[in-house]
Amino acid sequence: MGLLDNFEKGLERAVNGAFAKTFRSGLQPVEITSALKREIDTKAAVVSRDRVLVPNTFTVRMAPADHDNMAGLGPALIDELVDLVQKHAASQRFQFAGGISIALQADPGLSVGMVQVDSRNVKGQVAWTPVLEVNGKRHPILKGRTVIGRGSEADLTLDDSGASRRHAEVQWDGTRARVRDLGSTNGTQLNGSPVKDAILEPDSVITIGRSRITFRVLAQATPGATDSRGRTDPATERHDMGGFWGPGE
User: What is the domain range of residue 201?
Assistant: First the structure.
């Protein structure tokens, strides 16, 4: 299965997985992702033989009622949109000028069910933000190590009787991650196989008891990024539904 096939599967997960909320009418999350994908493909610019540049800052406009519905999905929606945009760009060998920024905006001029995407290139450094995803909720990883377990002393606490109080840890040095079992009773699995200590690749799945924990790395734009005219991009300085949240994001 190719990367593009995986991207389309990701669209299904965005609607049926993390966002299993059905709207009888109005805009669907999958339609936002499709609009972002079309915007990227349309705005792709060939800079050189080996470099195709695409926008990295997006404003997604929709009717106020649709915006209220999307805001109800919480920050995980922006995380998923950024993740899928990043994967689509990778599948097409596109490149960004900086971190990915997506903002949702209510537009009274649009009817319910309609979506409009505006985009531009914003230059800036990319901050790689590692997260652990449990039951659709993402937890930022601490620099150094993050302990996972059932006990209150763990950095990431699991409500899982199959987990030890200090079950495993994820180490992050700023560029790479490792997972290490801490002598747990029931052991730790990485992508379905028992593990004691191993490199943790993006989108790997750690299994502890009944809990499945997905490791992701989100490409986040750093504050103070500038657009092509040298202006500071305000979207990089907000982290709510109306602002920026990237890889994770």
Answer: 128-219
In a domain, residue 72? The reply is: yes
Distance (Å) of CA 174 to CA 22, 67, 84, 148, 237:
38, 35, 23, 19, 21
pLDDT digits (tens, 9 = 90+) for 234-244: 443 333 222 22
Residue 167 inside a domain? The answer is: yes
Q: In which band, very low, low, confident or very high, does the pLDDT at 96 lie, cut at 50, 70 and 90?
A: confident
Q: How many domains does the chain have?
A: 2
Asked if residue 192 and residue 109 are part of one domain, the reply reads no
State mean pLDDT over 85-103: 87
Does the pLDDT value for residue 247 go beyond 50?
Answer: no
Report if pTM > 0.85: no
Residue 183 scores a pLDDT above 60: yes
Q: Which long-range contacts (CB under 8 A, 24 or more apart) does 9-17 make?
A: 10/83, 10/84, 10/87, 11/84, 14/80, 14/81, 14/84, 17/136
Whether residues 90 and 196 fall in one domain? no
How many of the other CB atoms lie within 10 Å of CB of 187? 17
Q: 102 near 149, Cβ under 8 Å?
A: no
